[in-house]
Amino acid sequence: MAVKVRRIIKHEIDVPGLGERIKIAREASNRPVTKLCKEVGISRNYWYQLEAEAVLGGVAIDTLRKIESVLGIDLGVQFDEE
Fold it and tell me: Whole-model pTM?
């Protein structure tokens, strides 16, 4: 039996104003934050941390894409390799 070796590459970018854009889109959606959180798969507390830009360690791109999908928006966040 062989041992698998994993290489994880972490890329991060700063996105100024991202939390405010999420908040504006949420408010425009007229849907309760609890419903949005359930659809995205995150807690209400985490959602509000995102809006306040107080998430330690950043937000996973998969989570951000789910938020975009649920809100029906494109937040314009792209990595060079995308």
Answer: 0.85
User: In 24-65, which ranges are E strands?
Assistant: none
Residue 47 lies in a domain: yes
Query: Which CATH number does the domain housing residue 39 bear?
Result: 1.10.260.40
| Number of domains observed in the structure of the chain | 1
Count the neighbouring beta carbons within 10 Å of the beta carbon of residue 22.
Answer: 22
DSSP-assigned letter for residue 80: T
pLDDT single digits (tens) 18-65? 999 999 999 999 999 999 999 999 999 999 999 999 998 889 999 999
Residue 8 lies in a domain: no
Place of tokens 């807690």: 43
1 contact partners, CB below 8 Å, separation of at least 6: none
